[in-house]
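# nightly structure sweep
# worker-07 picked up a monomer target from the shared queue
# config: single-sequence mode, recycle default, output format = structure tokens
# input follows
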Amino acid sequence: MIRRWFENLLLGSRWLLAGLFVVLGISLLALLVRSVETLYDVGLTVISGSEEILIVEILKVVDLTLTGFLVVILIVSGFVEFPRAN
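# output follows
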């Protein structure tokens, strides 16, 4: 009886992670907005900036892209490993 209750408690607690997955999805939107802003800065730098500043701006885009990939990996791996009740 206690064992069954404990198993149900553990399996039910998995839904606490659902909120975190929603927050990760929303954070992807924030990364997208920041990427568009950085892309605009790259465009301005191409026109009037130095080569060093252009490289830094491009590296910012790369950093945001890799961060987005990491968030997607976390969401997908968390969903695949999401425990299911038998």
